[in-house]
Amino acid sequence: MLRARRRGRHSETSFLLSPKSPKLAFRDVIVAAWATAMTLSFVHASSVPPSTINALAFTGPVNILTRIGDPNFDILEAVHDAGDDLIRLLIDPMTGTLPNVILFPDQIHQLSSFILSSQKGYFPTIQATQLPPNLSEEQYCQESKMALASVLLCLARRFQTSHTTKLFSISDKPFCTVEALALVMHYLAASLCPNASMLNDIGVMLCGLVARLYYEQGLQLDPSHPHLLSNLGSLLKDSGHISRAIAVFNHALTCHPELDIALVNMANTLRDAGQYTEAIPYYQRAISVNPDFADAYCGMCQAMNAICYWNGRSGWTQKAIEFCEKQLLDTHNQTTSLLCAHSLDHWMALIRNAYSGRLPPFEENIWKARLGYFFQDDSARSSWTREEADFLLRLLEWYQTRVQRSLYVEAHGQVYRTGHASMTPIYENMTIPNSGLISTIKGSSYHSSFRSTQNALHTSFTAFTHLGRNLSVHPAPPPPLHGRINVGYVSSDFTDHPLTHLMKSVFGMHDTKRFSIFLYATSPSDKSSYREYYECQSNFHFHDVSSWSVSNIVERIVQDQIHILVNLGGYTKGSRNEVFAARPSPVQISLMGFAGTLGAGWCDYLVCDPIVCPPDLFVQVRAARPTSVRSSGDKSPDIGVPVKEGSDPMSPGDDWIYTECPIYMPHTYFATDHKQSYGAGSKTGTATRWLDELRRRDQLRESIFPDLPKDVIIFANFNQLYKIDPLIFWTWLRILSRVRRSILWLLRFPASGEANLLQTAAAWAGSEVASRIRFTDVAPKETHIARCCVADLMLDTAECSAHTIAADVLWSGTPIIACLWPSHRHKMASRVSASLAYATGLGKQMMVHSREEYEERAVALASACWDANVKRLSMGQEGKAGFEAGSESSELMHLRWGLFLSRETMPLFDTQRWVKNLEKGFVAAWRRWVDGSHFRVGVSPTTSFCRHLDIFLTIMSQAEPPLGAFFVDIVAPARTESTFRCLAELADRAFTLADQQAGLDTSDTPLTLKNRYASILYPVGNTDVEPFPIKAVLHQNVPPMQVQQVVIDFQTKTAECEGQPNLAIEPEQIEYVQEEIKPYLQDVWKRKRARERARQLQENRAWKDFYERLEANGVFSAASSSSSDSEFSSIHRRCPVCDTQTSSCTTCHAIICLNRQCAASQLMPFRSCSHHVSTVACLPCLENVQGVPSLGQCPECHLWFCQFELTWCLGRPKNGFVRPARRSFRQMANTAREHPTKPIGCSSCTAGSYRPHCSNGRCWSRVGGYTSVCASCSPGGGLWCTCEQCWICDDCKATDNCFKACPQCKRVYCVYECEYIQFCAECGRTTLCDDCIEEDWSEIMTEGTVEEGVALEGECQAGHCSGRICGACLEAARCAGCRKTYCSSCVQLQRCEACDGRYCFACYRTRKRQCGGCDIVGAKS
Q: Distance from CA of residue 1121 to its chain's centroid?
């Protein structure tokens, strides 16, 4: 148990009587009030816990439940006699405290009458024996009640201020929370002497409908009470009753015109209703009344940003920042001496408990140093590090997660899944120290993640408050039954909200065999079709928890045994982050809802991609960097406690942003539902669909802008106006001024921003440019999706990019200019559109890296598009030129064509693929939590080292000088014939020493089970200097409690392991390893250098030929055309004639200008891929090609594609075909064929109209990739497998061993890809097919015998083979040495001449050709 008390508090128990005293104590009054209030609350309660009914109904000889209200029953005396026994019965077993009691206003007046029924309305110690002469008995009773009410209110405020309830405790343990105690005391005071202020205080402590009733009751007593009016208005606003809230605020301001809080609340209500212009004057009035009101400044800035009212905005923003910083700094020095309430040994015992008592010595020293910092004198500590409150919260979160896993491992072991149910919950409780100064954390301007950290810590404090300040370590769910992981999604946006528009289909696409999905809606139903869709689904569980308390939601999640809890809200409106702070689930993940870090210990992972979140900005990734690889300027001290095993979020470092561990999605982290919600699913050809789209686009354009000529370029931005900042708007104006025939299309989002933007445009760029800015109203979702295609190019915003809007625009086929500016790399919200553009496959053409490039790219695309439009209109070819994307259309039309026609298949809109990738992340996250790597900094989110290689190399490339790496496997244990024998011996010794120094016993782990590998680091800065090894990082895959990594430094001749420096390894042994590695490294470097030089030489020659071709035809005069090949390496790789991007032929590597209007392009006719514009091939190469050409023309749509976008038929050999040893087209050049290699069609035009590829891996059609069999090459139709998934052509059908028949049903199955039947890889006998296995043939067959298939008892262990072996062949296929089984096609066993023992080559070589059974030397194959 963990409890802390503030030092220096004077005792508060001197005026109280002990509960064992014969006289009544003040505590008896409070407990009686609590019991009475609980009884009264039963009237409106939907359900009452049985334990509470039993406690009130029977407490020894007294039946309190039935006697309350009896004038002859003294409840105070009964409570006093019951003592602590009654309190123990009333305590909620879940929280360990008395429950919060909710009473309605009409119930509280009965509270005092029931308690004092036997005292004639007097408090026992106040009742006088003789009344004063000037007072009647009624007046005296009334004044005594007023005095008692005042005492109760004063005590309640004192408890709230000191945040202590030690006066009310059992065995020195508080039995109630401060909030619950204060509420009961306010109930009792209001029942004695009600007034408006009391009712307002009760309403503040409550929430929802009950609070509103108290506000309204108070206004009946005082209709002009300022705080009642302000609070009631805020409650109505939060409930969605905007008009009623505005009316209440108007009444409050009529009574109190200078009430600052009412002015700000009125402004906030107008702002939330979209009336930004009307809200600004109220903010200004509030600031004039109270110049130090930070909320007014913040609201003013938000309202001004929303309508792009930038006059004086910077001044207001600076004021808001200053006041917020001041408020945060005011409590800066008030959070010290918390940890000193307990000794250092006490804290160390807590930490050892989190480690299950196994704390290595070096880790213990680190923790003592961390904790010892807070036990120093104040003068010895830096002024900015005195944040004990946040340290304490983070320590408790750290303890909570570690103990949760320890309890799981103790109960189930390190088990990822189970085949039987295990329902044994284990609870562990811990009390938060009694300090009320931890709800506010100091501000900082070092990095943006600090704001999120403040929010996270405040959320944790709020959660602990709601849960009774007893931090419960909730039991982790049992292992997933049959591997089915329970995943819970928590969101307030399961309504008609953009998040639902994007993720509507995601939850139903999860694999129900591997995942069980739960949705928890924290907002009430909006009666929309989206909410109804969720409520009626049967493939996932939907719970409306909008009216539940935090503790009830947490309890439900624990009952549902959620393994992974996903936060879809983050710090957005309506989110319930307190649920996550309570840690009801072992693994908690942030996804989609909030584009940024949560900075929270209760958020473990952030689903993202490398574009929106660069790897080096994650604290976990940076913590994994070797010390020598860190940049030289990284000298910021890691002050504080890295409770999350990473850097302290309160430290002044600015080199990281994200506290979570990344789960990188392969294409984009952004989910979309456009394919399911808006996909037409047209079966028509590509040409027809494209022409229909062009006609539809022209019609929409004319309906929206009927006065706009067809040659005008339409720039657009559909974001809310608050995302527009002055810099990006100024850039748009420059683009409009440079592209004369263009307009900018914006939305009235909100409408009040239109006038401000037009006024700014006229002032900055003139009235002519301002007149070309067009505004339209916001359209419904379906209409918006349909009309997005009207824009020619979307100009994105930089500070906060388009998210859902970007997905809508790309789905319509409209290209976008997405910002990927280095200055914004730390802002996830500014890089989302770049991530979406990248996921289309055309991202490089739409992403820009600076403001200048943004402007130039927009102007270049628009200018080329305008030229193409003018030419198209002049020729009268409105549709044809747009369709012939490879001839006369612009690059912008190329992009639109590619986006539109590939949207059904591109990764951005492939929701099913996105869900599958997310499921892989879920599985990896769960496995990491079970095996403990979840808690180790720097360990990859995936268990595969190869999957983490990209991040690892990204880290290394930032070193000075940059480092490269090559990876080798290490044999364990070391063997004499090993390629890296010295390295293997060093690994054996290093890991043994590291385990011993860490106090780990690894004797029970066989050395042969340790999979080891090494990454050798070497400098790559200078390619002319032979490389040399700098470090060797040794890895081994072993159980989590063993050492997994050792770093060998070849420069210092030292070795260290995860914080353990100077392992006792001799420098000579390290030198041997260095000498062993150096020749191999130099050989690798020489080969790589030779390849690079050959490539560079080829490229230089190609550019030289290009310049000579230009000069020979008089297109361009190159003064350096006669220069040597080496001088062309510095030439700018753009066309010297038109300064356009160039490419090279995929076959002859000739340089080709991609601008078809350029004269240089006419000298080398070429074709380009319609999907990948930079993939080109010259016509001579396409006419004289062997095998599959690099490009081909689809016979249906007549568009050109690269070879990977088409399906080809090689042509059936006329005289049969014998497959060559290697897959090479050159070996087939002289083969006579029915027809030359030809494309069958692209995926869009001919999907399903041609035969699938032949399943026979040795078929003539399987020599190259993306090949199939056309109908003319297999006129007989081939043969389909019974499984209807595998097919072979006519030629393969005539060969043997292509099909196997089931011994029972005699149905035929192929042996290549079918999974319905299996066969022995040695003798070829088959098992029964799956259908026969499921049927009971003994009952079906009346005649004949029931056939039985062969039993497959083993499998080939060669690693790359999946062959199965039957029991009859098993012993002959087993090695007598290692006892592994191999099929004869993979390994030929060596046989001993004497005893006929069979050995694999590895065992035979290890025994030096000596049989282990008879010691006879010599063998034969």
A: 53
pTM tops 0.85? no
SS3 1195: coil
CA dihedral 327, 331, 333, 337 (to 10 degrees): -160
| 661-691 pLDDT tens trace | 899 998 899 999 988 888 766 666 777 888 8
With contact defined as beta carbons under 8 Å apart, do 1409 and 1419 qualify?
yes
Task: Classify the C-alpha dihedral 258-259-263-269 as positive or negative.
Answer: negative
Task: Show the tokens assigned to 614.
Answer: 């660069």
Mean pLDDT across the chain? 76
Run of H or E residues at 1017: strand 1011-1019
Q: Find, among 909, 902, 906, 908, the residue nearest to 885 by Cα.
A: 902
Paired with 1151 in beta bridges are 1144
User: Whose structure tokens read 């081994």?
Assistant: 1036
Rg (CA), the chain: 38
Cβ-proximal residues to 187 (8 Å cutoff; 6+ apart), any chain:
33, 37, 101, 103, 108, 111, 202
- Does 1041 score more than 60 pLDDT? no
C-alpha distance from residue 494 to each of 499, 534, 1239 (Å): 8, 8, 47
CA angle 725, 728, 732 (to 5 degrees): 130
Count, residues in the chain: 1421
What is the C-alpha separation between 478 and 1415, in angstroms, rounded?
A: 53
For the cut 50, the answer to whether the pLDDT of residue 727 exceeds it is yes
Q: Which of 31-45, 440-454, 627-641, 991-1005 has the lowest mean pLDDT?
A: 627-641
Give strand ranges (E) for 453-521. Answer: 470-473, 485-491, 515-521
Kindly tell me the sign of the dihedral angle through the C-alpha atoms of 570, 576, 582, 587.
negative
d(CA 1208, CA 1185): 14
User: CA-CA distance, 1373 to 1388, in Å (whole number)?
Assistant: 9
Q: What's the CA gap between 734 and 728, in Å, rounded?
A: 10
- Sequence-separated (6 or more) residues with CB below 8 Å from residue 556: 520, 543, 545, 548
Is pLDDT of 35 > 70?
yes
DSSP 112-162: HHHHTGGGTTS-TTT--SS--TT--HHHHHHHHHHHHHHHHHHHHHHHHHH
Residue 77 to residue 64: CA distance in whole angstroms: 11
Low-confidence winner among 86-100, 369-383, 506-520, 912-926 (lowest mean pLDDT): 369-383
Mean pLDDT of the region 320-334: 64
Q: Contact 1005/1026 with Cβ under 8 angstroms? A: no
* DSSP 8-state assignment for residue 823: G
> pLDDT per residue over 572-597, tens digit each?
888 888 899 889 999 999 999 999 99
Instruction: Specify the DSSP element, H or E, that contains 380.
Output: none
CA–CA dist 1154, 1143 (Å, integer): 7
Q: 1387 — alpha (psi -120 to 50), left (phi > 0) or beta?
A: beta
SS (H, E, C) 688-716: HHHHHHHHHHHHHHHHHCCCCCCCCEEEE
Smallest CA-to-CA distance from 530 within 511, 507, 546, 556 is with 507
Please check whether residue 454 is in contact with residue 443, taking contact to mean a CB–CB distance below 8 angstroms.
Answer: yes
Whole-angstrom distance, CA of residue 260 vs CA of residue 248: 15
CA distance 84 to 691: 84
**In percent, how much of the chain has pLDDT > 90?**
24
Kindly tell me the burial class for residue 1342, based on how many C-beta atoms sit within 10 Å of its own C-beta (0-12, 13-18, 19 or more).
exposed
370, amino acid identity: R
Other CB atoms within a 10 A radius of the CB of residue 317 amount to 16
- Backbone torsion region of residue 1187, taken as left when φ is above 0, otherwise alpha when ψ lies between -120 and 50, otherwise beta: left
